[in-house]
Amino acid sequence: MTNLGDITDDDEEGNVSLSNNNVVGVTVGRQTLNITNQGDITDDDDKGNVSLWAGNFSIYWLLATLIGLWFIFIHTPQHITAKGVQDYGVVFWMHITLACFTYIACMWNVFHTPSHGPWYANIHILVGRTAVFTSLVGFSLGMVAAWGPGSTTSFGFAIGITSGGIGQIICTIIGFSAIKLHQWEKEKPVPDEKWKQRYLRIHIGTMLGLFFPSCGVPAVMRIFEMVGMKMQVGLPVGLTIFAIMIPLTTQALDKKRWY
Ligand code: HEM
Asked: Which residues cross the membrane (predicted)?
């Protein structure tokens, strides 16, 4: 067939290879599939990976991320140094490392979701699974650090951080189970689209719950402490703002807009 300048079958792997521009377009219905000289099939509708900065930007994501970055990289190091690094034991250090990873993982996973391309889907799953682990272990160690023998945590802060932590565990477990159910539904020979979407929505809602109120609680408690607001007032106010941000962010994600 070489005379026709089209198809040869003499490449090393034994794949059929294509001459000229090495791509043949096959139209099936309204879709064009391209067969490349690697012998693989690509889908024209598959947009590949988006740019790193072209994530799910919204003012809610930005606010939660700025609060988180301030808390992790500015407030916490200052607070620990002021109190005395030697005051903290190994349990606390492990807790703080796992908690910070969970927080940063949420920032990333909300900004880049699997629909942004195969690379982002793999990273989302890898970062997400690690965050599920660090969230559960980080919470347990945090409880030991806050309530265990030798703890220097104030009673009010320990109560606040424990309620945030319980919410965090609930969100982590429900969020992970929901995406597993979504994947299970997707793999059925005839998926129930309604339930597939519902599971995904639960995943999004609970993971935003992990990001905004759960990870954000310790940070807002410190902010309110700094402006002299009583914890009993500041905590419910902060929680309400974060809770309202969940449906607003879901809407922003749906409509692909920044507000
Ligand atoms: C704090 C934020 C998030 C965390 C920690 C998180 C965590 C995870 C985890 C652990 C998985 C993998 C499940 C598995 O295969 O074992 C996953 C998958 C997935 N997540 Fe998220 N997620 C977050 C936010 C989001 C958001 C905001 C969306 C959508 C807007 C989303 C959409 C998905 C989808 C569609 C999958 C399935 C990917 C696939 O099966 O190919 N996630 N996520």
From this structure: 57-76, 88-111, 123-148, 155-179, 199-221, 233-253
List the domain boundaries for the chain. Answer: 2-43, 59-255
Instruction: Provide the whole-model pTM.
Output: 0.82
Tell me which CATH code domain 59-255 carries.
1.20.120
C-alpha to C-alpha distance for 70 and 203, rounded to whole angstroms: 27
For residue 243, the surrounding DSSP H or E stretch is helix 231-255
Encoding tokens for residue 231?
């914890």
CA-nearest of 120, 106, 96, 112 to 67 is 106
Cα–Cα–Cα angle for 106, 110, 111, nearest 5°? Answer: 115
30 Cα to the center of ligand 1, angstroms = 30
CA 213 to mean position of chain CA atoms: 14
Q: Is 109 a pocket residue for ligand 1 (Cβ < 6 Å)?
A: yes
Q: Flag whether pLDDT at 102 surpasses 70.
A: yes
Higher pLDDT, 157 or 173: 173
CB 23 within 8 A of CB 34: yes
> Quick one: DSSP state of residue 99?
H
Mean pLDDT across the stretch 81-99? 91
Give the C-alpha distances (Å, rounded to integers) separating 189 from 184, 186, 192.
10, 8, 10
Reduced to 3 states (helix: H, G, I; strand: E, B; else coil), residue 33 is strand
pLDDT tens figures, 119-166: 999 999 999 999 999 999 999 999 998 898 878 788 877 887 888 899
Q: Which residues of 7-33 are buried (b: 16+ CB within 10 A; e: fewer)?
A: eeeeeeeeeebbeeeeeeeeeeeeeee
Choose one of 56, 109, 200 to mutate for the ligand 1 pocket test, by most ligand atoms within 8 angstroms of C-beta. Answer: 109
Ligand 1 neighbourhood includes 253 CB (under 6 angstroms): yes
